[in-house]
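Example record for the data management plan.
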Amino acid sequence: MKKTATPRKPLAAGIAKLLKRLHYPLDVMLLCVRWYVAYSLSLRDLEEMMAERAIGVDHSTVHRWVIKLVPLFEKTFCKHKRPVGKSWRMDETYIKVKGSWKYLYRAVDKAGNTIDFLFRAKRDKVAARRFFEKAIGQNGSPETVTIDKSGSNLAALHAVNAERETPIKVRQVKYLNNIVEQDHRAIKRRTRPMLGFKDFDCARVILSGIEVMHMIKKGQMKCANKTPLSAANQFYSLAS
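Corresponding structural encoding:
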């Protein structure tokens, strides 16, 4: 098996602590986690692919790596995320968990860069407001937010504006939201082979990993290197 680009910098404290409990080489774990969140592969696909490389890894072990490592990677990525624009397009898409539809709230700027995302059990004003508060807290305030005809999203924005000196301009123009609806496809394409999630919290973690990899592919991660890193190596660098 060709070795992946294992980070040469000291490992992040959380990663180093985790490695003491996970008895596999870091490059193998990073490879499996990246492939799982980046490509349309199932856990059993990864088990077979590793077996072809003479690496015995059970699919449940790969799942455990994803659940343990992705939150650490997401936290690190947020520190290196590029700033986003002030004109947001917000929408939600459907993700199935235990046979029921749940809701992934997402927003992109007019250039298509991901602003933020939030996975919620319900589609209502409370969920939408929580999304806007999280997105503003991490990315700063937008000047304009474009939404569809959703009453709950509009009510959430009105509630946010009620507490602001300078209100956010709200537009309800469906065709302007095509950019975020198109961006949903990259996420849905990756979740389709999973055939629905069995647990809400696991779904939330896996979706955050998919979103992080999607942002890296779109060039949203700041890199200190003078030579641009590939999307794969940018992902691996989150471990250091």
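Summary line stored alongside the record: Residues 87-189 form a domain with the Nucleotidyltransferase; domain 5 fold (CATH 3.30.420.10).
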